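hi! just following up on the protien thing from before. the input was this:
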Amino acid sequence: MTTIERLRATVIEELTEGQINGTTAATRLNLSVRQIKRLKVKFKENGHDGLIHGARGKTGLRKININLENNIVKIIKEKYWDFGPLMAYEKLHEFHQIKIGRETIRAIMIRNDIWKLKKRKRSQYFSWRERRSSYGELQQFDGSYHNWFEGRNPLLPEVCLLASIDDTTGRITNAKFDHNESTNAVFKFWWEYIKQNGIPSEIYLDKFSTYKINHPAAVDNAELMTQFRRAMKELGVHIILANTAQAKGRVERLFGTLQDRLIKEMRLANISTIEDANKFLKEKFILWFNSRFAVIPKSNNNCHRNLDISTTSRLNGIFAKHYVRGINNDFTIQYNSKWYQLKEIQPTTIFKTEKVMIEERLDNTIKIKYKNHYLNFFLLPDKPLKVKSSPIILTEHKSNWVPPIDHPWRQFSYA
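and the predicted 3d structure came back as:
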């Protein structure tokens, strides 16, 4: 008997023996007088058993059939052995037409030692930060190295998933697999992002070397910046560097979800290459994720800036590695163990020892820029030989000046 049932038994015994009346018993048990009379009749007929709930010990009408439970356990152990209760519930409903409750699946998996409750440990306190109000106002961005293909491709034991999530809506705004988190990979990611969505206002990311110069001498030196920060500055995007992983917790939790759900979805689809994985992301997974987990923003404003004609034409140069080099006396430029010779005809006047900008673009082509002009040049097969004389300047055309008859040069005589 429960505590309440034992209390009822004591009061009903006193009522039966005449020590108290029905009104007093009803008051002590917080029941109506009519209910007290019914309990008194049951007590006289069945004793203490009459005060126990009638459903005690009986099989519930909603109890799952044992054969169905065994079938569910068999399916989960064969196909979804490492799935969580929620994902197992979705797959049983989608592929096996087993339509029972999510919590029932959870109870079955716990009862059969397929899944165990996980306890979260938090050693440090982090305060809650409110979401931004408008879509595109802040993008959280990061890369995750992981065995995404679970060994199905021996040539790719570990690849990097680059992903950005909107802080306001929780939508995946872009995701892409690549071999690493290099500058070129990040440039390709954000070029694709900007073409799809526009230019965001701010980007929240960590202090990885691609995004921040981590040398001790570079502290608080605004003149030293990575290629990525330089590109974002040209686009007018503000960069926020997180001191801890928890500061950009939305993208960190996203990777936790992707390392669970995305891996299993790609396993079911038998995906083992970067190309197939990126296609699966774009065509299926991101659409499903956003429809399932995205939230409604406070404001309907879109803070993405549309690409204008000028910015679009400069994207090739913005998303390129920039390096400063000097012009030698023979108008050659050395870069990456190669020599480039400037042509005689140039779009602007160029002097020796001037500094030029080398642009190494994503398609591995080289451009040389000087005062917003792209110079004409060609690649030298070998290191150039030293010459005794060379032009003083390069201009837009060849010099057509001819000294007059009385010029001092013409008056000179060796005699």
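The first strand starts at residue 138 and ends at 146.
Residues 66-111 form one domain.
cheers
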